[in-house]
Amino acid sequence: MLGSVFRDKEVILPGNCTFLDIDEVDITRHEQVALVMQDIKPAFLVNCSAYTNVDGAEDQQKLSHAINADGVRNLAVECKKYGSKLIHYSTDFIFDGKSLIPYKENDVPHPLNVYGQTKLDGELAIQSVLPEAQYIILRTSWLFGPRGKNFVATMISLAKNKTPLKVVTDQTGSPTFTRDLAKATCALIEKNAAGVFHYCNSGSCSWYEFARYAIDCAGMTDYPVAQTISADFKRPAKRPEYSLLSTERFISVCGYTPRHWHEAVREYVTEYISQQPPV
Ligand SMILES: NC(=O)c1ccc[n+]([C@@H]2O[C@H](COP(=O)([O-])OP(=O)(O)OC[C@H]3O[C@@H](n4cnc5c(N)ncnc54)[C@H](OP(=O)(O)O)[C@@H]3O)[C@@H](O)[C@H]2O)c1
Hints:
single chain
């Protein structure tokens, strides 16, 4: 989802960019990473790759760790060789959700699931290899946007097909539009920022409210969405009840407040609907 925003030039990274997919470089293969880094010697390496199947990770611990931790270490080691700055994305799922106020960058992580643990291990790998000036770790939450597996498109398509919908009310966070996250990345690069940052769209909601709003934006205000709670909607991976990220540090460095998730979802849904074939 995120990588394609840069690749398709919906948001333009500064400088001459080389875009590499898994076919060109598998980050778990250190020798492949070493070869492309030797060839390109980039000023920046923006890593959008990850193992992102939160439930799948519970059964695929080895693979998710190989990608989210060992693979990320490979990138950090090669960045160190060439003085490249590593820009890497992490997640709200490194927190346990017990907080009552938005998580700050230096709050103590305590992941509840394998995915969160492997993403935290990736952060720690970067920090053990690179000095702070040489990385940006940008934690984000609840991504949506064109391409890839995306909650907003899934909810709208289920509603269109009249599939009964039940969505949880007891997990609170903030949706983030991939395009806004990509712009935030450019803003941090432009400010020569370094260290750990949080970025998500402003406001907060439950997954139920997120689904309801997306379906409303698609013009299906009468379509029923039932409420449920996590205990009645068992999934392999445990999720934090509350994972809102504080964006204060991002705002103070970049000088702007992320737009509200309502505005971002509305924009995306309008675009998504306009691209659907007529019924
Ligand atoms: N999605 C969310 O809600 C969310 C929330 C918080 C944070 N994040 C973080 O934000 C970042 C971007 O997420 P996203 O949703 O855009 O991810 P995504 O759509 O799942 O894309 C991840 C990409 O990484 C590729 N990949 C997997 N293993 C690889 C490997 N060994 N070498 C090279 N590429 C590999 C995948 O290729 P294949 O498709 O071929 O496997 C896929 O194209 C990730 O760091 C993620 O952890 C995401």
